[in-house]
Amino acid sequence: MKKLTTSVLAVVLSSSFAMVSAQKVKDTAKTQDIEGVVVTALGIKREKKALGYATQQISGDNISDAGQSNAVSALSGNVAGVQVTATSSIGGSTRITMRGISSITGENRPLIVVDGVPLDNTNINNTDTQRGAGGRDYGDASFDISPDDIESVTVLKGGPAAALYGARAGNGAILYTTKSAKKGRTSVEINTGVSFENAYIKPKLQTQYGGGSSSTLPTATINGQLYNIMDYGTDASWGPKYDPNLMYLPWNAFDPEFASDYLKPVPFIAPKKDVDSFWDTGVNYTNNFSVSQSFNDTNVRLSYTNTQLNGIVPNSKVNKDNMSINLNTKLSERLKAEANINYIVTRGFNRPETGYGDNSVAQKFYQFGQRNLDFSKLKDYKLADGSQRTWNRTAWDDPTPAFSDNPYWTIYENTSLDKRVRTFGSAGITYSFNKHLSATGKVYADTYSLTNSTRVAVGSAAIPGYALTKRNISEYNYEGRLQYDNNFGDFSITGSAGFNYRDNKSERLTGQTNGGLIIPGLYNLSNSLSSAQTSNFASHLAVKSLFYYASLGYKDYLFVETTGRNDWFSNLNDDQFYPSVTGSFVFTKLVNADWLSFGKIRAGWSKIAQSSPDAFIRENYTDVGAVIGSTTVTSPFGGAPMYSNPNTNNDPNIRPELKYTKEIGLELSLFKNRVGLDFTYYDVSSKDLILPVPVDPSTGFLFTRINAGEMTNKGVEVSLNVTPVKSDNFSWSLNANFAKNVNKLVSLYQDLERYIITNAPFRAQLAADVGSAYGAIMGTDFVYDANGNKIIDDNGFYKVSALKNLGSILPDYNLGIRSTWKYKSLTLSALLDIQQGGKYFSTTNMWGHYSGMLEDTALGGNREGGVVLDGVKEDGTPNTTNISAVDWGLSYYGGVDKLNVFDASYIKLRDVTLSYDLPKTIIGDAFQGIRVSAFARNLFAWNLSNKGIDPENTSYGSGNIQGLEGGSLPSTRIYGFNVNFKF
Q1: Cα–Cα dist 575/567, whole Å
Q2: pTM for this one?
Q3: Per the structure, how many domains does the chain have?
């Protein structure tokens, strides 16, 4: 892998310099293209040459042309220093981090801003879902951003770049700028596309042995006749080897109303319709209509986008409607007004459950089950009276589900609903006192309601029930600022000062039935067998802020900037001040070299909070619900509710976590902008980490929350742009984004060496280990001799070590390489996305071996021969002890956890896009342009440690719990086409 990456970079560099020196074609690119204007914090437009911190921009075309439905996951591989993890679940979570992990219990994601509106990106997946213990992935609120409306994306990578946003942008910020009408233009645009999604990377299952726990089939006398039957109540596949001469009664042979199957023996062979036949081809549609009108001094753009996602799991879909209006107008020579409003309705039906859960089809297919099941028969999942037909019968004469429901019962009867209705936007005015001084007042709003419900039908293996949750979230920001820009001889001054008032409110109402349902099919809390359990929660957080920035320039090549923001939090005792200082030196203003088009050195320092603490983090409240520091109510016992104190005591003097950043950078443009380089080195120290540390239980608590500990991140980011070939009709350009981050937990509290973040569903733990990188997977290892050989015990099994650190979930580096070829009106673009390093724990690998489901448990068709493990005995001699195939498989659970820990490296052909702009000779004067595009995403993947698991699919939320695979859906390959009409 290392050699491959080095080779790719060497080819990029060598070819670029060779081609540049060979080119004779005139290049008309100008320095101002490199020094162009970019959008920075608070939506302030700045000249890039004056910035003393790292930013990176990508075009909205890179997102929309590749058929992306998620504007956040589209950043993967396109921005140096940005790591994106997106699940394959329909409309699922997307986790994005920049420059590593800085907080153990706090927020590590960057702030997302759309047209100046700070967007709530709450992920509602609970802890069980995120640790792989079952649940539905409802995705992030950032899914509401419409990719078709994006003009550009600016990434502010660290504290110096995002300090003006205060505590909420301690992890950087991503600024989305949407399309607006252009002055003097009127246009109508229609964009329509369809894509197809197929299951791609999935566990490989054995096809030589059937279900059960014995090498022979059990028998039963039915109606006086002896039959071979299955061990129906066993959800494992350690049964007999397939034999076409062996006849038996399958699970579906005991229902008289299915006369063609009733008591009819069939051959014991591999099914014609296996697990792969279950997955659908997902069909996704996107249709966008926009109209832009410019008249007099007013510009208006209206846009509507409908997105329909149909997943690979049958009977699952997400529908999203985005409506937006963008308006700006000049009311007078001095007064301008602008507004934008977005209205989004997102509806999800039956988002599939993931992880180790009752309704997780992936868990039933790849962890426990019987390999002889014919899925064409499973489709008849219900009897005429509505009762379930499952393969996992308790016995041949008892159809009650033992452990597992029929997968088709799961997807058609145990369904879910979710709906999010959202409105966000802003309105503001700008008054120019003169050409140097202006004042701006704005209101930013983001509000939405979210309702989600789940059903478990009567007749399921799990307790029937109904659960309902309603949420209302709102944030309003009121902002006013003065802007000043002027030149005094060789000096230039630009600056701004202002205030912001942020008002956050959140409400939640939950209810769930208790003990089952009275009437089958009636999903209402009043239909609860015992009294339904309900709870409600509300929080209110406000932050008052004053801020400024001031930049001083000298002769257009030397710039020094300082920013400051003071935040007063409603939930903290003391206010906080966050400063930053940056500088840049455009040395090409002093150097006259034909080969050097642009060069800048920059440096920056900042102190900023990582995020504002929870609204209830300072005191212990008695509100009912799962709130930090609150009294909680659990399921009733004997009809009486149970109350308990919180496990963790809060500290009234708690402070925000602080993040200190130092960075230096170099920007170069060479050979008339044919080669561009942006290099950054950063050193980040996060202090005053908020941790719950153990205390004496006699205090009434198990933990107390304090400020303690330190974590560091040091790394480099490199963005390289090369145009090896450029002529009138043809060009070839390369863009490479490389990032390497070294994370270290320096300390926790006093002699505390380890903080357990969470547990996997069964064996492993996710921890923060002092002296190591964040996200340590804790588990048992092999025991090795002095020569590094694995030691085998007297019974033929691996000796097991004590609990130890088996590696961090964080990668060593990420690399994205985009290559673009243009020939006249034809453009071909491909993105290679590479990750090296990191670890994940796989519950699927553990249980899939335990139950005899996975391909290698067939042992090449010779289970009968047993297994001799590779290793040495205590005396150093080679192991010769043979253990049974079943005992070997069972050892994956309860033995060496490292057997289930895998490297998270991958090489992916992330996207390929081919587009063609039809010439005027074909489209005539009726259209301004027609572009036809074909695209494919996640086309190929290489270098996987476990060929059946996508390392990106070890995430079930966008929080800090990562790297614990509990039962993932297959990752998908997507291909489609798009047509864009401009009138």
Answers
A1: 6
A2: 0.91
A3: 3
